[in-house]
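As agreed, record minuted below.
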Amino acid sequence: MGNQRNNVSLSEVIEDKDNFVKAVFSLIVENESGVLSRVIGLLSGRGYNIESLTVAPVNKDEKKSRINILTSGTPMVIDQIKEQLSRQVPVYHVVNLCEQSSYVARELALIKVVSKGNERTEALNLAGAFRAQVVDASIDSLVFELTGKTEKINAFVDLLRPLGLVELSRTGIAAIGRGCHTIY
């Protein structure tokens, strides 16, 4: 039965899309060249989609980094991804934050709007409502900074599209468990 669990074909995954669930994996890895490439290669080589990816050092003395990966799949595929990530040599800890009682996830976005007149005023009004900060302004453009849940950023972006949105840069999610639970 264990072998059947690890031998999921891509066609079975595609047929079972109705049962897809989100997963937010947080990994503590060795901060060295090639680690990120190996983690991404493991996922992409098996046909898993990475919806969001962030990585940054968390402990310079111990040379460790944290990787946050947002992906989706059937529960069986999510379990398979966790098992495969856990087996990677430079990976110290792997947690699927969605399996914990709760977690906090935030994203940062920089959004450029090119507009004048009423559209510019409306963009500024929306920024106030969403608590976005103006981080650059010129006569015909604004750059907003917005931090929050992915859904909040998506809603802000959708409202700015007709007002002259021309460029978007997003960080992907940073996530951490709530309460006393840790990745360690």
